[in-house]
Protein 1
Amino acid sequence: MRSSTRQLGLPCPRVAFMLAGVLLAAGLAFPLSSAAQDQATETASASAQPLEVEVFHLIFRVVEPGLYEVAQVMSVVNTSDTPYQAGPEVEGRGAAGLVIPVPVHAVQINALPPPQGGLNPAALVFEPTRLLHLEPVAPGIQQIGISYEVVAGPEGVDVSYTLPYPTQRVSLLVGGPAGAAVQVEAPQLVRQQPMELGAQGVFAQWSADSLPAGATVSFRIGPTPAPLSSKSLALISFSFALVVAIAVSIYGGRRRQDLALERQQVIEHIAHLDIASGTGQIDSSEYLHQRGAALEQLAALDEVSGLAEPDPSSGAGKQGDREAARGRSKR
């Protein structure tokens, strides 16, 4: 079992080295041209905040649905000519130079090694939704990287990041061994063409551009819903056909003989459900749902045809169960 305790680790885990190398090989860590860097400098010079982020990369490697290894790399630009260290104050330790956002679900947080990391683990202070680096940010471009795990339940998890600086692009990539087993809901982000990351395979990609400081980027990641089995689809189709038949019977003036035939079909359907449940072909929740719907249909037929009382738990309902039992004994 992997620990879900939030802690700041000093050594880098396997995913840190692997994905940091993938980033560098793919050219993701140095995404902008010199013209774009000049534009960033001009934009920042008009404000007192000299830090900007060119690209904020989030790479989710899906180990299995509910367990995600994450590499997070920021290309940070100090547009001034002097080192910057005027961020949030940490009591007894002075001001931070850099703020690094992390999701509240992040555990086993580690600093990536240079050149992708650029962090001194001893100078990191952990807070619930961010890391504070208590060293100055040098002028120019800094590659800042961390890795961590996100552990979620079977329903999925909502992940969010509050951007501390103006950010030209946020890039989300999701893939890995079980990448096809998860789905991402990211209404703030735009779906892009998939990206191949070396031996790690193809990663789905989303992005958003030109985000201000303080903006929150959120998305949901979780298991892809399992498709209905052929047995389930057949049961649903059969139930739908019965509903249509009953509607026609009620409003179309069908003969009593037709209603009796449809009633027998419902009884046989109940018998099939009982057999399927007894042999493990359908789970208990689906069985109870389908059987309950069938009993309601049986009661509706009985009420229209006058064959029995409308309560399926007495009269025709018990008769239907007895006939269903006889149907099972024949099989």
Note: Residues 8-14, 29-47, 307-318, 324-331 have pLDDT under 50 and may be disordered.
Protein 2
Amino acid sequence: MRVITGAKRKCGYKKAGGVYLVSEPVEKGILPIWVSLHPPVPCADVIHRGPVLVDADIILARKPEEEWFVGSSKDHREKLRADQWSLEKFGMTTTLRLQLGECAKLSGVDEAMEHLIRAVRFNKHHVFAAIEGLTFAEVHEVPRVGLFYATLIEELTFYMEDRKAEHLVKMAAQVWRIAENAPPKLLPEIVPNLMRLLVTLGLTLDAIAMRERYL
């Protein structure tokens, strides 16, 4: 084992239990700009504006990237994953989903999902007419919402193939995401069509909540 004697530093002394990056003595005591690992450890994570807490031992052991994060960074990532799941399933955060419309005052995500799956219904003529209204309003051409419109159509296609209610719930989620991301000046034109689709899907309370939130 190599013993390294810590010299006095202008920023204090090393503390027991801490992790420190130490280099060989160099001019002016500056650490190397780049410390390489061979072979390198790949990281697919996005660039962060602030510090991220990780476990260096886990990284050096080359374990999966999702296991690197610790403390508040791990908690933050778990919340982001939960929020992303909620956006995909509900079109909004779990907190908001349990505060408005069909799921107001329900106790959790499982109950909310079960309620929506029981509540949704499908009438081909009415659903297609509502979507035609969105198409006529050129929602698919609106910046920031075109992707949600495309996903709405995709979920409709899936439903026509297997008749699973979860696709109708996901359609409703895309309706909410369109409303949330549409430019404010277009809301008076778009929201009535979105409300019509929600009513057609059997989610009348959601349609009322959308009117109150966006009009």
Note: Residues 71-90 form the longest helix (20 residues).
Protein 3
Amino acid sequence: MEFKKIFNPLKKCLGDGHNRQYFFRDLMAMITTVSEVEWGTELDPNTKRTNDNTINNFIKRGLSKTFAQSIVNRLTPERLEDQVNELPDVTRAALAKELSVYDDSINADNVGKCVADMMVDIITVSAGLSSEEEIAAKKEEIKSSKPKSESKAAINSTGTDGMDESDEIQAKSFLINHEKERELIPLCQIALLYSPAHKHIRSMYTEFILLPKRIQRYILKECGAEILADMDSLHSDESIDWLCDDLDVFELSSKCYLYMFDQYLYRAFHYYSECSIKGYDNYSFITLCKHDFSAIMNNDHNSLDKYIDDYLWMQDNKIKTEALPPMDYLWLEKDFGSCKEKDLTYWLCRFVIDACNNLLPRVKEKEFYYIVVNDQYAETQEDLYYCALNALYNLYLCHTITG
């Protein structure tokens, strides 16, 4: 279990509207008696508190070994359990539902104990006192000692083992009928989790949502995009927060655009789903570095993706430039102050996709699984918005390969 997977659901249910840094401190106060000044982290000399960027890194990339070691011997899981148990029944049920994707035994009655145990395991592993494999083996030993009440049919209901001949025919029929849309089929799982009750512009998304789960899994597996365990952690608002943090860290913007993303990005889906994305000039951005094919072709202009790539390359190589940060340049180039809203939503989606794709090798430190979608096949803002959510998922929420 990774810290970022449990942090988002806990913040939704226990955060009381506070920002991520505030809730992180609050959560630590529930799980340990170690004060912030004893965490072993660098403190801001003015506030005497841990730097917010350090806390953001813990949330995005996991607790550091030094931090975990500073609190592991003074944990108070019973206090965290009590805090969760004091939540209203409806809130506990919602929290249990979100966490059940990692442990199907979690319910509204035991979610407090399960959350406390999860946090203890996360801190113990982060401190290097135990491995994830050892903890998993212990849990499996406990689980196997319990009477097996689940039927084989119940187990198969979440996988593809229960597929019969008619199921395979239905799945293959879906793949054949949407052969020309195959590159976009991985987005069906985004549609399923983000808007399962919505009648989509692209009928393929709606058809997929209405299929039994075992058939959905079969289709995604055939397309090399089998549902990953943490897809239910796809909270677009949290991911946008993280993206804006990284835009600042990598100097892709000179100011915070969080408000604009929060207010307008989702409108691409809610208000402009049916709008075609053909006709936009995607190659109107100046070429910063002519160090490849663009030099041969003598291209003075290129895509937003190439501009971001060039800008980051110059940052990586400590090359001074007077070029505007990509988000600032996009604002001016496309006249965000007075352009049509549907144009604004298009370019925000485009920026999220291109920024995330370029940040992947810089943010991800290990090899990882991710869902490949060729956004060149997107035809409407509905498609492009789902491509943006998929890009955010790949950058911030997908699994790291550990084996």
Note: Residues 234-396 form one domain.
Protein 4
Amino acid sequence: MIDYLLCFDDQDEAIEFADTHGFDTRDTHTAAVSIIGEHVTLTGEEITDGPFKGTKHPQGDGLFWVLYRDINETLEVPEEAETYIVWASNSGEPRPTDAPDREFA
């Protein structure tokens, strides 16, 4: 299995890429997709009153994230995908700390 973490400017770009390059779930026996959407972290200004006092406001990154799993390692990754792939589980690189940490169970 190979997991790919992809990042797009918006949902429409993600859908167009998936349709064009096979990063979809048409064959559910070979792939899985987890839609993350915008990555939100609690890094905004600190909340000063109310029940959430002392925590920080959620801050979105404005991007559209997708976690894709190639179950049988049969997907031919096109060169155009390198623009969107932030991390691949077979790369040997650690997962970026400023990206969503979603994983498949």
Note: The first strand starts at residue 2 and ends at 8.
